[in-house]
Amino acid sequence: MAGFVVACGGTRPPIQVTGPGVVFRGMVTSVEGSASVSEGETCEMRVQPTDDPRFNCRVQVQCGDEVLYGFPGAGFNRCATSEGDFIGARDDYQTRTDGDPAMGWNQTRRLLLVTDSQPDFRVVISMAAN
Length: 130
Fold this sequence. Notes:
By secondary structure, the protein is mainly beta. 3% of the residues lie in helices and 52% in strands.
């Protein structure tokens, strides 16, 4: 991925993942629209640290062979932390705005939501305690 031009001139290097991160597991509890996953399917969410203070994590959600969120070059977020552990993230922008689905994750509530409008779908995943 190439760097991009910043407002003051020059380029900023792309965000780099700095470690393997943590894998959280869950199960699809609700599907609406034309999602490519089914209720009862198991999913994994990998949350990795990055070298960027603004987007301090990269999130990828995969159910079976299907990546729902965090396609290559995407999934960078500002994750909430508690005692050094990632506990949540939120990306409000869907494919029409930024090229990938929206995502909301709250590990305290053990809830993960992935939504999009292109195609139109909503997937709710109940996360296991880690």
